[in-house]
Design goal:
The chain is mainly α. The chain is built from nine helices and no strands. It has helices spanning 2-18, 21-26, 32-60, 72-93, 100-113, 126-132, 136-148, 154-170, 172-182. The two termini are 32 Å apart.
Length: 184
């Protein structure tokens, strides 16, 4: 989540606004769609590398109890892409680099704290439990924990479906917004 988000927020904004890399790339035969899709795929790749590293570490320490964890290898890329897409969408909307503080403080940090990573969602108040189920990281955590522990139940399958579907649907959102922003 963090690697994908940082790569498609601060890094992408700097390349777009200050370094004018997008302007230079758009002078070539590449289209805006190519550039933004490339940014998303790079953010997803960076997040994927980090996620695979974490998966390897928890496997070394014996916290992977099932061969079902092998399903995480392709899924981790999808999860990283989801956060790259969300970050790129926010980048397409903001006009000032200082606004990324709000993204990380008001969106990423609450996701991180209330997604079931550190403590069970069941310890939260009922309204917070319901709200958590509508966040992307909740589903990512549910899938990762479930597959690492060998629990391939209906909740895990539903969360896989939700994250894959939303990633596919949302992929075009930042491309469309950024096209409108860059072509004036």
């Amino acid at each position: 989540m963090y690697a994908s988000s940082f790569e498609t927020t601060y890094s992408s904004f700097i390349r777009m606004k200050y370094e004018k890399t997008y302007d230079a790339v758009l002078a070539t035969p590449l289209s805006i769609e190519d550039v933004i899709a490339g940014e998303i795929l790079w953010g997803a790749t960076r997040g994927y590398i980090n996620a695979l590293t974490f998966l390897g570490v928890i496997a070394i320490f014996g916290y992977v109890d099932s061969a079902a964890a092998l399903l995480l290898i392709p899924l981790l890329f999808v999860f990283a892409a989801l956060f790259a897409i969300i970050g790129m969408t926010y980048t397409a909307l903001v006009s000032n680099i200082n606004l990324f503080n709000y993204y990380f403080t008001l969106f990423i940090t609450p996701l991180f704290l209330f997604s079931g990573i550190f403590f069970p969602i069941s310890t939260l108040p009922a309204w917070a439990q319901k709200l958590a189920q509508f966040t992307p990281l909740y589903h990512v955590v549910l899938v990762c924990r479930g597959l690492a522990l060998g629990r391939l139940d209906q909740n895990v399958l539903t969360s896989i479906f939700i994250t894959v579907t939303f990633t596919a649907i949302l992929f075009l959102v930042p491309i469309t917004i950024m096209r409108n922003r860059l072509i004036k």
